[in-house]
Automatic annotation (TrEMBL):
Entry's family note: Belongs to the bacterial solute-binding protein 1 family.
Residues spanning the signal sequence: 1-22
Protein name stated in the entry: Extracellular solute-binding protein
InterPro entries, alphabetized: Bact_solute-bd_prot1 (IPR050490), SBP (IPR006059)
Amino acid sequence: MKRRIKLACLVLSVLITLTACSTGEKTALDPKNPVSITLWHYYVGDNKIALEKAVDAFNTSVGSEKGVVVNAVAKGSVMELEKAITDAANGVINAEAMPDVFSCYPDKALEIDALGKLCDLNDYFTEAEKGLYVEEFLNSGRFDGERLLILPIVKSTELLYVNKTAWNEFAAESGLDASKLGTWEGVYAAAQDYYKWTDAKTPATVGDGKSLMGVDSVANYIIIGNKQLGVEVIDGKNQQVVLNREVMKKIFDTYYGGMSLGYFNAVGKFRSDDIKAGDLVAYVGSSSGAAYFPTWIEKDNTQQPIDFLALSYPVFTGGSPDVIQQGAGMSVINSTPAKQEGAAVFLKWFTAEAQNIDFAMTTGYLPVQAGAYENEAFKTSLETLSAGTAADQNIAKVYEIALDQIMERETYASLPFKGSYEVRTTLEKSLTAMGEAGRQNAMVLKEQGMSEAEILVALDLNARFEEWLTVIRSQLDESGIAYVEK
């Protein structure tokens, strides 16, 4: 999406404002007899508080005027929410009744829609209203070409996070520039140099270099890597998996080689934990996780402050600069006309610029309407973050890069199909397991005195790649998911 689209969205916003109060429209809502809307979500902490504040504001304003009362219910984690939704939709004994609105990812929407439970939101949003949203964000909730089953609430992309303090120390001696981190090949080479540089710090102990790089979502790494190189590994249009050997080999070699030789690593639950522990200098992760990037690290049993650097997501050489766009939206169930309309009224209000900017900036996500990025409230929020605490300043820096990616690069979310979530899991777990096995095998070979080149030969990346594909095929066959090889 290009920046000029935002002007068109702003014009549409004005037109909607001018026509929103037209009379004569039919409505199932009655302010004298308010309809109660139950909303299930997975937000916790500050996100949960922000949502509850928004719901309260709606109930005492637009909700009161139109006759809609929303009750937000936290259902725990995403997995707990999805189980509750699935049980309710299938009428499992002792399951709760279905909510009227719920946080939803595309894979779950497909499952619930197959049971005839989801409402097509096209019935409640005009073309002008839909035109206000960032097109790619809205399209991620479309099914069967046009049916709008999920409305985007907030979104995120992925960036490269760097401990600037550690990087600058390395760069000063190595002569490397951060621009080298713009490609995956550059990241790999920099990680290799960093490992050798740190290894040389302790000449008495050979092979104890440190890792530079980590990957928070291995599934996203595989999916967007394929897309950058011209392949949709999760092919929702044809409801199959596409295993392009040349592309998958490049993705495999980078991750497996990096993990095996210690250039890459994954120690804690999240890569931000590894930054804090001093186990990594950089990682790729969600823009919504900016608040979790540490402002200090543990070194020599002391807390040492660190500076922060945010960079664009790396691109495979020769590929297009595609980046992930992700984040759950909200779906509405088929119920009564009043409940469906009431749910739509809330969602329109919640995703309108004023409310959505406040919620997104509180939670570290991106607003979903294009005009929000030209809104003075958004700019003011960014200025406030830039002048705030070290953590706030980190978030502001991330927004600068994330916005550039959303506006200037192609954002991508794979189209789901039945079983596509299992595909993500298969890709993630299989490559993660291969990387960890390679690391353990390489450690044994290091102890035998082998050089890095000799270790790579001994590991036999070609054989390990074939092993990875065999695992993927086997699990896809077991799940009954179609795939093609090219």
